[in-house]
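Could someone model S-adenosyl-L-homocysteine with this protein?
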Amino acid sequence: MKSFFDNERSELAELFQPAFRATQIFKSVYQLWLDDFELMTDLPKLLRSSLSEEWNVKLPPVHRRFDSVDGTRRYLMRLDDGELAETVFIPEEHRSTICISSQVGCALACTFCLTGQLGLTRHLTPGEIAAQVLIAQRDNLPWEMRDSFNIVLMGMGEPLHNYDNVMKALRILHDEHGLNMSMSRITLSTAGLLPGVERLASEPAIPNLAISLTGATNDKRNELMPINRKYPLEQLLDVIRRFPLKHRQRVTFEYVLLRGVTDSPEDALQLVKLLKGIRAKVNLIPLNEADELGYQRPSDAVVEKFQQILIDHHISAFVRKNRGNDISAACGQLKKKWADQIPAEQDSRLDCR
Ligand code: SAH
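Reply:
Sure, complex below.
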């Protein structure tokens, strides 16, 4: 059976006659949350049964959900081949955040990231990427709040390494007859895969861009993020300077603070120098520690001092709150932890109506 979620509306319009059926079905699936063609009573009966035979319109089952004391939830979504995709829902009063994965594992091997230790298992399909959003949305947001969320591509994987599938998923989520997510509510985070950033710059609809920096000099970044050996900082910054930004839009730079490695006042000054002339915003992320990682998180005082240096040099700098640490849901902690305690038969499907 073909997965419904893998398709853009324009593709479905080519398959279905008359073409407006694609719009009808898109609305039923993404706006009315129907997960069975038989419930789509605006379709002719015969079409309903033929669709049911050919297309799977059920969301993938949730293998396990972890609930943090701070309200954050981590999902392991079971894929057709038995692999798991990780998704995090971070509740906020006004607008929550859904953090999705683009790959199972990751090929980039950043030394401070647990996902980096897994290596890459495989790319996620467009449908597997889009379905993560729907699962987190439907499980957490009441109907009247259903659109109150942003999406960040900051889960497992390097989104620009899986460029075509990621962009297709974003177009599906962006569709006016689907979720109708504005690109301004989506942030794509990359470790700096330059050809991907350049390609992104030429898209008709572009999400917000976040760059994971962490090292402010090539020496340091080469050591922490091997991708820097291929695309060094000066090339990266050059491409970012030319990246198209809307009025008041900025590029976000994520900077992980590692004790004794990236957290000194000199590091902060290097960062100031690097970002000169760029419409930037910096998110400082004090390391989320893990036994497998050979780094420590700096003290709060050191974090504050680092932030103050940036602010003194007129750079907006925020310290990322550490959410969902108790369930391994924080940045860099996604690593299939506790994935195998429950047999697949016990995976549960969301009853989303
Ligand atoms: N590959 C993409 C998407 C992953 S985003 C990227 O690199 O941007 C994950 C974010 O978490 C990145 O900004 C990364 O620098 C950060 N991160 C990774 N490991 C971390 C850790 N142990 N503690 C805090 N942040 C971490």
